[in-house]
Amino acid sequence: MNILIWGGVILITIIIQSTLIPLISVRGIYPDVLLIIVVSYALLSGKESGVGMGFFAGLLQDLASGGIFGIGTLSKLSTGYIFGLAERKVFKEHVLLPILATLVATIFNGVAGLLFLVIFDYKVDLIAALTQNIMPLVCYNLIVAVPIHHVVYRLIQFTAE
């Protein structure tokens, strides 16, 4: 039952992120809601769950985006694992948790994606990607991090019962 609920959440999120959220983009940058869900879920549920959520979310994002297949999967999977490691070390109800986690996760996910592109021998302007894509994305993700983390926290509590 738990897998069906979270699978539904990810499917609904990818549909919204692919259709509605680009309408509020600024210079082509819009929040990565899937990343915030993966990070919140990993922080609240652990590394095994974070890897699963990151893999599924990244795979669906790769399928929906039409970009280079596998980059989103690998970067979200690794982000879910890294933040899942901190599950027992964080105070889950603290208001700064989603803000700091989203800040670090957005930078980590962006840099991981760039590194995977470099590993796969794509030409990447790292400075331009950091200043024109990742940093504005950090700001946008921070705006929506707290409400999304709160929803994920409540949904985890609901599915645990």
TrEMBL record:
Alphabetical UniProt keywords: Cell membrane, Cell shape, Membrane, Transmembrane, Transmembrane helix
Location (main, coarse): membrane
Subcellular localization, as worded in the UniProt entry: Cell membrane
Membrane-crossing residue ranges in chain numbering: 6-26, 33-57, 63-83, 95-120, 126-148
Pfam families given in the database record: MreD (PF04093)
UniProt topology in membrane: Multi-pass membrane protein
Cell membrane recorded as keyword: yes
One GO term (biological process): regulation of cell shape
Superkingdom per UniProt: Bacteria
Segments forming a coiled coil: none
Homology family: Belongs to the MreD family.
Protein's name in the database: Rod shape-determining protein MreD
Organism: Pelosinus propionicus DSM 13327
Organism classification: Bacteria, Bacillati, Bacillota, Negativicutes, Selenomonadales
